[in-house]
Amino acid sequence: MVLPITAYGHPVLKKRAEEIEKNYPDLHTLIEYMFETMYETVGVGLAAPQVNRSIRLFIVDATPYAEEDKHAENFKKVFINPEITEEKGEEDLFKESCLSLPNLSEYVSRQPKIRIRYMDEDFNEHEEEYDGMVARIIQHEYDHLEGILYVDRLSNLTRTLLKRKLKDIETGKIDPPYKMLFANKKSKIKT
Hints:
Layout: E1 5-6, H1 27-40, E2 45-47, E3 57-61, E4 76-88, E5 92-98, E6 101-110, E7 113-119, E8 125-131, H2 132-145, H3 156-170, E9 180-181
Parallel strand pairs: 1-9
Antiparallel strand pairs: 2-3, 3-4, 4-7, 5-6, 7-8
């Protein structure tokens, strides 16, 4: 089942998400639906707040970046209750997009290496290091769990220049390429 994507401006995107337990209701079904949604909307990552669930869960499939970054090849994972414990290296810029902000992309500065502790879908604990594109995707999705969107990381000037576009997304005055859930409107689907 493809779930509607929560649009910029929805309060769930600004909240710090809650940790979950192994017995979280229908967890495996939610993960399956999130992967279906991510692939249908042509994303490489999706956080639970983006499907209107304020829980500490995100998924990643970095495979589309395999030609640019060999570590992205077949990189498909579920991250539950993650905690980035370290970010290091000289920050670099990359043009990021977000399913909650359709038709927008901006250069975002991030550190290239991370260490993360998380549970997989079977609640096995992992602590791993990532770099390059995989680290960037993880940082982007992790931000969602902290109530941060990539536009929050932009300069004040850039955010001012985007103000009208952001307001249009927030108020649903857009023609989204997929089904979306807006804060004050019903879901909208492209026909």
